[in-house]
Specification:
With about 425 residues, the protein is α/β, with parallel strands linked by helices. The chain folds into 3 domains: about 130 residues, 3-Layer(aba) Sandwich (Rossmann fold); about 180 residues, Dihydrodipicolinate Reductase, domain 2, CATH 3.30.360.10; about 80 residues, ACT domain (Alpha-Beta Plaits). The protein has 13 helices and 18 strands. The chain has a 6-stranded parallel beta sheet with strand order 3-2-1-4-5-6, sandwiched between helices. The chain has a 6-stranded mixed beta sheet with strand order 8-10-9-7-11-12. The chain has a 4-stranded antiparallel beta sheet with strand order 15-16-14-18, covered by helices on one side. Helix 1 crosses helix 11 and helix 3 packs parallel to helix 4. It starts with a strand and ends with a strand.
């Protein structure tokens, strides 16, 4: 058998210790599949004395993690520290510049600096892999990069954040409101103490930007992802969606808009109404799912655990096995010099149906004001539902479903209503996902 692939591991949290357990547990099987053993030669973390439930004595401890890039007994550096910048990025640059392989689960760093790191990896002929950065243990990066390599993809979309999916599907199951279910998610460990990155859609946007670059062969552009989280979704929206034949899910979507002279890329994360019969409607709890639509493959569904120590460790070690085999390819499907520049699409050009919920004062003429704004903006209303007020003098919720039409018309209607004293809260707009 060939010489071992020697790795240095930066970060010994749940994923880092999961990597150690996986390599120790499946050592012989991994060696057989990789064609050579995979050995950990060095580790580091902020607190050396903390008990992590694994024996670290066989491995060399490195006080300064950036020294890992300089060690002669390290072939690949695995970064599980996190953060889009700072020490993690410094380590990535140092490892690749030294010609060492670099494996990471750091979605934020890949979304913000993946292009730079891919360029450096190409110059140094060093492997750069990040399967664990998107959707935990689901092999969606390899699935898009290799499994759909012969296809022109039309659209990539899916449920990319387990915290949001848990909150929304539990709201659906229990009838509870957003704040209550977020607290429950935090108690169960599905949400961070500060959940902003998850519930505001930023985590899903990081993953979507990575998938779009891989699937479409475009230069990664996180800043072009239009992002809206789930904080405005109420229990009443969940119930109304159910009555109409839908569930509410936070969906990230990347698709080409070819209506103009040059193709433009629409990247968007926002809550959507998903038809009961759509595969994503059955995805509940802290699960991720990605759908890719190819011109020859048709619709492909990748589904599984989107986070956690074991699934994420599985993805990290899968990258290491690929590197050990000498099979790692271009990080974003094509050589970095061949990645295309693609301008952001105008979301107003999207044609579809929407669910719109207004929270209004309980007084005469409000409904007429809303429908007049829709008429003047060219929005055709398919159905209109008015819920009774919660208490004397309280607010009333008005929900509508539009006929198919350009999104810009809905935007114009809401602009006409902006500042109206009849509206007591900003409207919530959720696109209806097509089958």
């Amino acid at each position: 058998m060939a010489d071992p692939l020697r790795i240095a591991l930066a970060g010994l949290g749940t994923v880092g210790t999961g990597v150690i357990r996986l390599i120790e547990t499946n050592r012989d099987m991994i060696a057989a599949r990789a064609g050579r053993p995979i050995e950990i030669t060095a580790v580091t973390a902020r607190d050396r004395g903390r008990d992590r439930g694994v024996d670290l004595s066989p491995y060399g401890w490195v006080d300064n993690m950036h020294a890992m890039a300089e060690r002669a007994d390290v072939d690949v550096v695995v970064e599980l520290v996190g953060g889009s910048d700072g020490p993690a990025l410094t380590l990535a640059r140092a490892a690749l510049d030294a010609g060492k392989g670099f494996v990471t689960a750091n979605k934020a760093m890949v979304a913000h600096h993946g292009l730079e790191l891919a360029e450096l990896a190409a110059i140094k002929s060093a492997p750069f892999a990040f399967e664990a950065a998107v959707a935990g243990g689901i092999p969606v990066v390899k699935g898009l990069r290799e499994g759909t390599a012969a296809n022109a993809l039309n659209r990539i979309y899916g449920i990319l954040n387990g915290t949001c999916n848990y909150v929304l599907s539990e709201m659906e199951r229990t009838g509870a409101d957003f704040d209550d279910m977020l607290r429950a998610a935090q108690e169960k460990g599905y949400a961070e103490a500060d959940p902003a990155f998850d519930i505001e859609g930023v985590d899903a946007a990081h993953k979507l930007a990575i998938l779009a670059a891989i699937g479409f062969g475009t230069r990664i552009d996180f800043d072009a992802v239009r992002t809206e989280g789930i904080t405005k979704v109420r229990a009443s929206d969940i119930a109304q969606a159910d009555a109409l034949g839908y569930v509410v899910r936070l969906v990230g979507t990347a698709a080409f808009d070819e209506s103009g002279d040059e193709p433009r890329l629409l990247q968007r994360v926002r809550p959507c109404l998903v038809p009961f019969r759509h595969p994503l409607a059955a995805v509940t709890g802290p699960t991720n799912a990605v759908v890719a639509e190819g011109d020859f493959s048709g619709r492909l569904l990748f589904q599984g655990a989107g986070a956690g120590d074991k699934p994420t460790a599985s993805a990290v070690v899968a990258d290491l096995i690929e590197i050990a085999r000498g099979q790692s390819g271009a990080p974003f499907s094509v050589p970095v010099t061949a990645l295309r520049e693609c301008a952001p699409a105008d979301p107003g050009q999207r044609v579809g149906r929407d669910y719109i919920r207004f929270t209004v004062a309980d007084r005469p003429g409000v409904l007429a004001e809303i429908t007049a704004a829709m008429r003047d903006a060219g929005v055709s209303i398919e159905s209109l539902i008015q819920r009774g007020r919660d208490h004397e003098g309280g607010e009333v919720q008005v929900a509508m479903v539009t006929h198919e039409g350009p999104e810009r018309c809905v935007d114009e209607a809401l602009a006409l209503l902006d500042g109206s004293p009849s509206l007591t809260a900003p409207p919530l707009v959720m696109p209806i996902l097509k089958d």
